User: Fold NADH dehydrogenase subunit M from Xylanibacter ruminicola.
Amino acid sequence: MSILSIFVIIPALMLVGLWLAKNVNQVRGVMVTGASCLLALSVWLTIYFIQERAAGNTAEMLLTYSTPWFKPLNIAYSVGVDGISVVMLLLSSIIVFTGTFASWQLKPLTKEYFLWFTLLSTGVYGFFISTDLFTMFMFYEVALIPMYLLIGVWGSGRKEYSAMKLTLMLMGGSALLILGLLGIYYFNGIYSGNYTFELTTIAANHCIPGHIQNIFFPFIFIGFGVLGALFPFHTWSPDGHASAPTAVSMLHAGVLMKLGGYGCFRVAMYLLPEAAQDLSWIFLILTTISVVYGALSACVQTDLKYINAYSSVSHCGLVLFALLMMSQTAVTGAVLQMLSHGLMTALFFALIGMIYGRTHTRDIRELAGLMKIMPFLAVGYVIAGLANLGLPGFSGFIAEMTIFVGSFGAHPLSGDPNTSFRMVATIIACMSIVVTAVYILRVVGKILYGEVENKHFLELTDATWDERVAVICLIFCVAGLGSFPFWVSDMISPAAGTILESIGVM
Assistant:
């Protein structure tokens, strides 16, 4: 059995431990122990992967393992990782670890909350290590199902409506997704004589005709794109984020939405390369709209969570935008953006939850002078905002610069007479940087500075030790990725190049 399976075994053991826990302290102990083990395992995996590549191991996937679990359909439990998978596992572990501390004081039903939270994280880990399409889809669904209860029971505001809307839209995306996956399975089997769900085998066969690829590519890209907040299927995201409890918002925006971008690249574009080239212009238009629309919508919001939610629509749209540019630099930037946005938005939602827990409002019109009352949280919010708008030294800058440099330098694809269309789309997407600065600085100025208008706020306290742990860890990661990005990009770039070679654009 591959060591990668431990990423699923640890959460499974955590579920057992949580079920047996008798009180809140035992629940916290199980969560901290499990989250720490997952973080340590992901750090070890990252170091191991770097060492293997340095030693000359050029295999597409490392630590592979496969065992059949439904032979009639050739469904197998198959796992393996490349550089993109490894950094996604590392991101997931960081968010689960910090989310545990961000939820330290959560009440009521603490035990039940962490049970569903752990089940959600199990699906995320399983998805990123899977190389069998059916197994990947199974873990994908495991990651989505707990969201309904986590928002509907522990959420705030219009939580029932938000939970139902999120679930219905994501299940609709899943319906499209399973149709696309079954289409790949069936037609790959017909033309290759080998019916399999194994991702690398299907990619190597490269036998599905282009006209059939054009039918199933939209199913898979939209299916994953719904989770990645692709316009116009993004409307569940702001409502879901606004109603979700703090740690769920952190994991949802920080990791779960990354399943969308990862799936679009790893499955839709990798397995259906001709359709990716033929139809990319359609989805490039939609992703460009997502980038600009999300940023402009954030400017007119007054709820802190809605502002960050629409910001996530913009940033996740930028991920899909960069993937569709299909240049190695742009795709590397897309994965860096997944990491950067995951860390930044987790930090934002953590801070917003901490502020809301004290003030009981997220309306920026009712918040002012927080820098005087809770300086630690206020400084953390400023740092998160500066990272979001792309200040050099933070992760947002290196990710967005890599995307835009790669997009401007993208070579013409087969059938493209010139790059003018992509160049125009890139210029429009670049405009979102200015808009992002507008809404970030607007919010910072409104809620942190000026005189305290609500005198009851003067009695509020600053961050507790558990909250400081979560915030400091995330700030450290955001600054670390922004200051030392090359070891990450060196892991991502070869994996991106392998997939792009399969697509036929390198």
Notes: Strands lie at 62-70, 75-81.
